[in-house]
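quick one before i forget lol
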Amino acid sequence: MIDSDEIEKRQAIIDACLRMSAMGINQGTSGNISVRHVDGLLITPTRMPYEMMRPGDIIRMTFDGEATGKHQPSSEWRFHCDIMRSRPDVAAIVHAHPVHATTIAIMELDIPPLHYMIGAAGGHDIRCAPYAIWGSQELSDNALAALEGRKACLLGHHGIIAVGNSLSRALWLANEVENLAKQFHGCLAIGGPKLLSSQDIDAVLAKMGGYGHA
């Protein structure tokens, strides 16, 4: 039985997937989204075009990986489950393949403190996790390590993960990571960025609070 709260969350996931495509931070069905629900999560199905999704197509999962639904869950369900199990502060996860952030991830570079908005991801940089094949436990382990003390990371030769205490915040942050990656990409083309100091970023983190998360 699916109650009204769950139906609302399922529709919000679909709406966020469509929004992710409209924002230009994902291509095709390569991205996936999850939202915490009761003692588990709701997650997008694998390989289904977003415009075809209906609330009944969203998969319910436990943190141990048991899935309930008409379809198979996203191939990246492992890191969704592992992140939510280990991070009670996370209510939603957005995974996408935005062009500039993925380019930086292909170069296996962290995004350094080139702009104060790096603080939106929770720290002094946005780390790039080492490459591991999609859907693997190794990828999940690498992502968890890169997200320690952070709200976003790059996945080497793959894409990004952004988390938040709501779906709107996670989606906002995913777009902000792409903006930062685009700025970094532009700086690399003209000699590399001048970076803010640790003291600068500490001041940003202290002042930022919920900036951009309304």
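fyi Residues 167-189 form the longest helix (23 residues).
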